[in-house]
Design a protein that fits this description.
The protein has 289 residues and is of the alpha/beta class. The protein has helices at 16-27, 41-50, 66-80, 103-131, 153-172, 191-196, 200-205, 215-227, 232-248, 279-285; strands at 7-10, 31-34, 56-58, 85-88, 134-139, 178-184, 252-257, 260-268, 271-276, 287-288. Bound molecules: NADP nicotinamide-adenine-dinucleotide phosphate.
Length: 289
Amino acid sequence: MEIRGSVAIVTGSSRGIGRATASMLADAGSKVVLNARKKTEALLAVADALGPPSRIHVAPGDVCDFETCRGIVRSATDRFGRVDILVNNAGIFGLRPMVEMEPDDWEAIFRVHVFGAFNMIRQVLPGMVERRRGVIVNIASFVAVRPPGPGRVHYAAAKSALLGLTRALGLEVAGTGVRVAGVAPGLTDTEIVRQGLPNLSERVARVPLGRMATAGEVAHTVRFVIENEFSGDGFRLGRRMTLDAIYDLGIDFFGSTNGFLTTVASRAPAEVAIVSRVPSFANRIGTQA
Ligand SMILES: NC(=O)c1ccc[n+]([C@@H]2O[C@H](COP(=O)([O-])OP(=O)(O)OC[C@H]3O[C@@H](n4cnc5c(N)ncnc54)[C@H](OP(=O)(O)O)[C@@H]3O)[C@@H](O)[C@H]2O)c1
């Protein structure tokens, strides 16, 4: 989808990956709806930084709550008329070994990452299907596509559920003009990581490039999945320009498009394997080296 002229909601855009994604979308010509739990100074500062009030709208609210999400989407459509792009980015993180896990820890993680995504999707999808136009990008995590470290069972389970939601919804709405994709960032330099991860330098040393991804680099991947339909020459071109670089930072993406379920997993900088449940598509694209 062309970003210029679109209307986008980015949940959790008061800082980090969400802020960078909102900024990328605004720079690319989208009207952007910003969100975080509360209307804080930080959220208003992002709005000020991103552009004139005529193009930026602030819609605070906790994505864990279904009715609140109805209000966020209503306020977006009242302001800009429709929603073309939804980026489900809002998230929390915490380390807790399973033997100490409390039901509240488990529920809190699922509420924001899984219920939050459902709540927002349920509000925007009918309009997208009706207009036959929409892209939904779910920000998952590398823990959903690669082995996670200890203390992340709740987080990995929730992000894996988000991955399943992405794949299943992509198939369900195939042919409606709505695309559903996911981006699974590796270690990215944001508050969630700086506050939530011990032994950060050791973990960073294991990243092929020897540094964390920046929020801007994840936003660039989000742009890639919004703009590219992953088919034919468009995919190949995009892959050559982008995937080699994002692999080095451990960012994966996956999604469905044009009726095909596509999982893209980078295993080495020069090799991109595309797995599809649609044999003709898998044969056409195959494994590119
Ligand atoms: N950083 C990484 O290494 C990494 C790796 C993989 C995946 N991710 C995922 O990327 C996403 C963004 O992470 P980040 O690193 O940018 O984190 P971050 O800097 O902590 O930002 C999280 C954002 O989500 C908002 N938020 C949290 N709970 C919310 C809720 N219930 N309703 C609405 N907004 C809420 C926060 O705003 P308020 O606190 O003001 O509400 C903030 O704007 C998350 O889904 C995370 O799981 C991050």
